Amino acid sequence: MTTAMEASEPNLKESFNEAKIRQNQLDTLDPRSSSYKDTLQTIIDNLERCRQLIRQLALFSPNEEVEDIATQDLQYLTVDYNLAEMKIKAYSEDRLSSLRTSVALLERFLTQLDHYGLLNSSDHKLYERFLEQRDSFRIVSSSNPEEKRKIKITRFQEEKSLKQKLEYLRGESQKINIDDDTIRNLYLAEISLSVNRAFSSLDMITQELDILSHMRQAPAPSSPPMDQRERTRPDGYSERLDGPMTLAGLGKRGGPLLNSSGKPLQPFTLTDKRTQLQQGVFRSGHNLPTMSIDEYLEEERRRGGIIEGGGNANAPQPEPDEDNIDEVDAATMKARQWDEFVEANPKGAGNRLNRG
Q1: I need a labelling partner for 69 at 20 to 30 A (CA). Which of 55, 130, 219, 333 fits?
Q2: How far apart are CA 270 and CA 69, in angstroms?
Q3: Around Cβ 79, how many Cβ atoms within 10 Å?
Q4: Residue 98 contacts residue 120 (beta carbons within 8 Å)
Q5: Positive or negative CA dihedral for 68, 69, 72, 75?
């Protein structure tokens, strides 16, 4: 007798279809958003429920061939693969555990397909190499650049061909009175594309696991306690009260210099550090000038950095001809204008130090 809760739980088909719908929505969401994380968790929950129902129904048996599997049940062969891909996307706190779970799911997915003969010859060889090299599996095992390039191009073309075939079969499956063979070929094409991507995921996971293992083996940088840290500036200033540039730290070799009665506990030497510290108390925070402006100009003049004279500026100006009335008037007007300018602009009038 089933309870009301069991009767309300979705069946295998409903859970699988819900997961596929959510997977399509996931591609349109921002991976940093909360809706992305919620949708991803919903997909994982539905796929895990599918795995549980598949085991309860004993949907796939090791004693049967692929021809014995009902057409509608073929699609459920990809449950392990889809769940592994979702766990890869879920960056949980225990990333190492999530990746290892994904590897186990992908291995189970490929093993089941190999049992049913659904791996082609090249994929079967990759599967056998993965079983031999679980910890170091790479799709391209050769170090020859030309061969690596050839393998990558071949796999890219295979995936492109599978996508085109899958797109065509999906279009055909939407027609009225579709036959069973078309639906079966559609599910088999989805399985083939999943196989191609599963090996790529295994390659990626192996590399990430290698990085994570090296990070765990690397010794963590040790930092002294806060009370032992010393923040020192380039000029020797320290925030420690017993630092080397403080009175308490002068000549310090470890432990106090004097005991409670004033008796020296260790040898020390009197230096002029106190005088040096006193001189540095009221020092300026910037570099002071080492010469006056006049000294600087004189030095520049000695080095030839100042050009004087301005051509014929120092040459004596010709006096205006007293018999030429126009020249006399012009010289008088020029002198008068200069006197008016000097009177209106006394010396230092332009340097008001921003006081208006």
Answers
A1: 130
A2: 95
A3: 25
A4: no
A5: negative
C-alpha–C-alpha distance, residues 328 and 343, integer Å: 23
Q: Which two tokens stand for residue 219?
A: 């010794």
User: What residues contact 86, with CB distance under 8 A and at least 6 apart?
Assistant: 23, 40, 43, 44, 47
Tokens at 270, concatenated: 């009197």
Smallest Cα–Cα separation from 190: which of 321, 81, 324, 50? 81
Q: Rg for the chain (alpha carbons), in Å?
A: 44
87 versus 91: the higher-pLDDT residue is 87
- Is 26 exposed, middle or buried, given 0-12, 13-18 or 19+ CB atoms closer than 10 A? middle
Strand partners, 232: 238
Angstrom distance (rounded) from CA 102 to CA 85:
7
Task: Confirm if 202 and 123 have CB atoms less than 8 A apart.
Answer: no
Q: Is the pTM of this model over 0.70?
A: no
Task: Tell the CATH superfamily of the 59-216 domain.
Answer: TAP42-like family (1.25.40.540)
- Token pair listed for 145: 């650049």
| 3-state secondary structure (DSSP) of residue 264 | strand
pLDDT at 241: 46
List pLDDT tens digits, range 157-199. 988 998 999 898 888 888 888 888 999 999 999 999 999 999 9
Paired tokens of 65: 């061939």
Total residues belonging to the chain: 356
The single-letter code of the amino acid at 213 is: S
Residue 183, both tokens:
């639906």
